[in-house]
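Repro:
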Amino acid sequence: MVKKKAARSKPTKKTPATKTLTKKTPTKKTPAKKTPTKKTPTKKKTAKKKSAPKAASTKNSVQSKAERRSHFDTVTNGLDLARARVLPVSKEVAYARASLAMWQEIEVLKKRPGFLFADVGYKFIGGLRTDFVAVRIHVDKKYSDQGCIAKTCYNEHVPTDVIISNFRLATSLTDGGSKVISDGNPGEAGTLGMGVELTQIGKPFFLTCAHVVSKQQPPTDLENFVMNTRGEDIGLSGNRNPFLYRFDGNFDLALLFPHDSIGNSDLGRFEATLPLGVSKPNRFGSVSWTDLNRAVFKIGANVPHVSKGFIDSIDSTPIPIAGSPAAINHIVVRSTTTQGVSAPVGNGFANLGDSGAIVFTEDGTIIGMVRAIFDDNKDNEGDRAVVTRISNIASEFGVDILP
């Protein structure tokens, strides 16, 4: 019996099951319950926590910084002013600042009551010199409203001082010693300063002040004889020659032709006895701000013939002098001790009759010639003298010390 083969069924194509897209909702895993323990935060987390309050206060912090900076600037500015007034500075800085202040403030200072001139020098308090370099206002007398001059100027950086200064020519009616008298200046006497050489012609001359030669400026007599106290002629003034005679703001100077009886060896001699350690005048020199309060000496007609003083000022506005043009670019010398105390009575630096006297330093450097004095100088209170610079005389007139 034949068995029939079972019919094969055709393979059916399987249709892929349709996937239904469903959004899976993330399930929040619930951590296993643990016994709660206090966790110590990590270093990173700790830093974040600490920075949080700082970030929160940033605005306030910035504002606080701005306020502090503004306050600091104000304090700094105040300190700058205080430092300029109180903290010590070098003498060079102090002098430069005072000089600048004087020339910048001069037009204002000129309007003050009794103003005569201004200069730069040490401030005096109670008659004693201090170490403060100041702008000094010189007046004819103290006024009740003098207080309008501030104690400081130039943004309060520079101290000021008010000084009475009435200068007059230092010729005198008294006679004696080594004084000289001119027929153009009857009854008055001055000092024959020194012998100099006029380098243009190589001849010697006597040096003195123009106002010692003649009371009238310009002189009516073009030739005036100068005599010693015994009435003997020792020199002749060549008033007609501008290189031998000048009387203006810059110079008060006369070069005298020596009398025939005067030998060259007598022109350069200094008979006065000098203090121990002080050299005989031997060369010309100049001064600068570094010479403030430097000791200087004078050989004059008055007794004592040799006197000591200190450089008080080298930088000033024109200095008024009674009977004379205002002195321009002159030196002021004060007869005080190094401590600023007035010199003893009778030992002032210059007096009437000392016009023409030379002024020199301890080492013999000649720096100038006395032109005028303050008041009569008899009490030595605030005793000062106006001195023409020898460096200006040498360059303008071509003179030098005798060889």
